[in-house]
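Possible regression after last week's pipeline update?

I re-ran a chain I had predicted before the update to compare outputs. Posting the input and the new output here so someone can diff against the archived version. Not blocking, just want to make sure nothing changed silently.
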Amino acid sequence: MTIDQPGVDISVVIPVYDEAPNLAELHRELGTALAPWAGRYELLFVDDGSRDESYQVLSRIQAGDPHVRVIQLRRNFGQTAAFAAGFDRARGRLIVTLDGDRQNDPADIPALVGRIDEGYDIVCGWRRNRQDPWLSRRLPSQLANRLISWATGVHLNDYGCSLKVFRAEVVKPLKLYGELHRFLPALASEMGVRIAEQPVNHRPRTQGRSKYGISRTARVILDLLTVKFLVSYSTRPLQIFGLIGGVMGGIGAVILGYLGIARLLEWTSLNERLPFVLFGILLLFTGLQFVTLGLLAEMQSRTYHESQGKRIYAIRRVLGGGSADQAASTASD
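New output (post-update):
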């Protein structure tokens, strides 16, 4: 896996899904913001199965700007997969992410990159004055941010802000599934990275329709369980399964031990306590099963699915970037 490419300092990865009206202006704003790195940046637009004219607009933009590369996915795989596709093909030493709806302000990119130069590995945007509805967007986000910070130990005010800057060697090795793109700082924290947060401008959406809603909250919470396991227990699963199994088995053993002593001392008849007997047996054997599951998970962790090298997207074609990308695109067809 190539971490960087000589001559490319910054790769900007932008997932796009039905954002045709926003793309031309977004491209212009990015060119202005990245002017200090003229000739040393690239823009990777990932068309995530758009149903509108997004790909056609991106094709025209790419034909007139050698900095632009366009990756078209075969269908809508989701934002996480779109980011993963962009990360795999990014060639810069720094990778910037932002949304394609123009609510993230490209003018904030130089300030975030400046924080990287201070020695940080990840700089996350913080939409301090967020321009979204309070009940359906801001309130669930605030609750999710607190829950994620508590569960992962990586305290950020705004996990949901897509505007972030990463060192390529930090983000490229990460494997993304589900909705894990929002947990990138937490996933990378396992490497011992330095993370900073920078207030950024957040603009109201002026064109197109939001693809986010309160329904995503449940999926975020479920993915948080995955992140918590990956960050805390992926290399030592027996500690979590063994703990659960030990507690359950211990309670079951105490119940059965008490009933056994009570029977021997003729304090009670087991027939009168049959539900407790069955409950104790259930806890004891379930605890043993959890311990066994932990041992199997320890073995499975040695062949963790990331070693399979299976990607979570399928590319239709890649515009720009040289023969290697063209060959990979052709092979995927």
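Follow-up from reviewer: compared with the archived run. The two ends are 21 Å apart (CA to CA). Marking as no regression found.
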